[in-house]
Amino acid sequence: MNHLQKARWSLVVFTLCLFGVGLSVFPLDAILSRLLPWSELHFPQATLTLFLKDIAEAYYYNLQHYPFMLYSLDWLGYAHLMIALVFIGPIRDPQRNIWVIHFGQVACLLTLPAIWLFGWLHQLPWQWSILDCSFGLIGFAILRYSQLQVEYADQSGI
């Protein structure tokens, strides 16, 4: 597999992850109604189960009392889907669309201060910020790998 193929495959992984995250917010009700009982049955005192309970409680409370608040969740999913579409260009031609890869790297890195700032403003547990930061760092690593593969392809004249 040459460098451009490696770059394309890593971009496919990144794009599918973005697309998956975007799609996951729309069936949140179905996901919670299946995942929470399973988690409670198999891991009743686990941190993940307690976290899922908090999510479910907040989601259903807002759904009942403030459904307009969930509108922002729809827009979050939509934004992930639209950003995923932008990465089709680099998958097709990574060398010509290197700027999209750079944009993605900057966006992933800028999630870090945003996560800490918004977490602090909303008094969220620091563990949530650590988890959220991991997504930005993993995304950056995938895009950095893609960028390096494109640069190696440029150097080797492919």
Q: How many beta strands in the DSSP annotation?
A: 0
Distance between the termini: 12 Å
Characterize the biggest β-sheet: none
SS element count, helices: 7
Mean pLDDT: 94
What is the percentage of strand-forming residues? under 5%
Contiguous low-pLDDT stretches (5 residues minimum) are none
- The gross shape turns out to be elongated
The percentage helix is over 70%
Structure keywords:
elongated; mainly alpha
Write the layout of secondary structure elements.
Layout (H helix, E strand, L loop, with lengths): L2 H22 L3 H15 L4 H19 L5 H16 L1 H5 L5 H24 L4 H31 L2
Helix pairs in contact: 1-4, 1-7, 2-3, 6-7
Describe the structure.
- The model has no long low-confidence stretch (mean pLDDT 94).
- The protein has helices spanning 3-24, 28-42, 47-65, 71-86, 88-92, 98-121, 126-156.
- The two termini are 12 Å apart.
- By secondary structure, it is mainly alpha-helical.
- Helix 1 (3-24) packs antiparallel against helix 7 (126-156) and helix 2 (28-42) packs antiparallel against helix 3 (47-65).
- It is built from 7 helices and no strands.
What's a quick, concise take on this entry?
This protein has 158 residues and is an all-alpha fold. 84% of the residues lie in helices and 0% in strands. The mean pLDDT is 94.
